[in-house]
Hints:
Order of helices and strands: HHHHHHEHEHEHEHHHEHEHEHEEEHEH
Low-confidence stretches: 379-389
Distance between the termini: 27 Å
Mean pLDDT: 94
Structural class: alpha/beta
Largest sheet: 8 strands, parallel, barrel
Number of helices: 17
Amino acid sequence: MRPRFSEVLAGLDLPGLEQRSASTTTQTVDSILTKKRARTLEDFARLLSPAAAGRLEEMAGIAQRTTRKHFGKVVRLFAPLYLSNECVNICKYCGFSRNNPIPRTTLPVQKVAHEAGLLAAQGFRSLLLVAGEHPKFVSGDYVQDCVQRCLVHMPSLLIEIAPMETEDYRPIVEAGAEGVVVYQETYDRDAYADLHPHGPKKHFDWRLDSVERGYEAGFRRLGIGALFGLSGWRQEALALASHAQHLARYCCNAQLSISFPRMRPAAGGFQPQTRHLIGDRQLVQTVAALRLFLPHAAFVLSTRETPSFRDGIFPLGFTNMSAGSSTEPGAYSDFAADSWKPRREQPGEQFHIADERSPAEIAGMLRSHGYEPVWKDFDASLLTHEQSA
Length: 389
């Protein structure tokens, strides 16, 4: 029987990897870059080193060429559609945390379908359905109904909801959803326990293994990520890379996507510790190193990042970008049609985005860089080719 990643992580010597990373020499980094591939987790750790930071331009160039080789000059655009901001968890960094005094709402299925139609009119053919974790308001039946209604407008649907048992995921797969996204938030067990004091989300291993249960239920797109800024960035990156490597090995019939979100302002006033913040150059180094480690994985770039930073970093390894996003349920109905921007403040949002450009503006930016924005999901034939490459 194959191990769950929770077992793998428990036996992983992250502090030792980080120490060896810190002592890496420039010569060791150069030997890895000569091969244009980080073949082991140890190699990946070396590329996160201070020594590798001095080779950032070369690393970024190799990462960009690797991405073009496997994905071409295309970027798939998608949008998140928030179903509900009701939540039973207390998460100190999240706007949806149950102790935050924000207006709460769960969209009726008809309103969800209406919002999906508005996004379709903007060009989108791929949606990520997102919801806070509240079993009373966001039940499996409700999610199934939302999936079925959204499929009228969207051929590609992924879900980012409370983790489930394998048998509870299956009806959602049968309803037509093709992927599941679960961010671990932080892979640091001690930090995780402090940040999630109440609610079912406090169970670290249960959340950690949820994408594997989703794969067993039939999902063929699996998304993971760490929320950088909650713990030390190198250890987070090492654990994230190990998680991705594990999924690539044991969930080989699925396409894997990895996201690198950074902390953004949200209700509740949480501020990450300065020592945990990851700077722009460090994030570039992380993305470039991971592209050399996992050349076939899809990388997701969030609207949490500023327009200038997104414009500069996407060619290094990103294949998917969100655009024209809102993190509040029902907000797309309040967007101005001519500019695709919100008409009002969004007090019920999960976090405030940094890139407020419309989908058309994002598509125009990509074209200006010689890239093709792809509105629908990659064809099944392309997905099969990527997995066999």
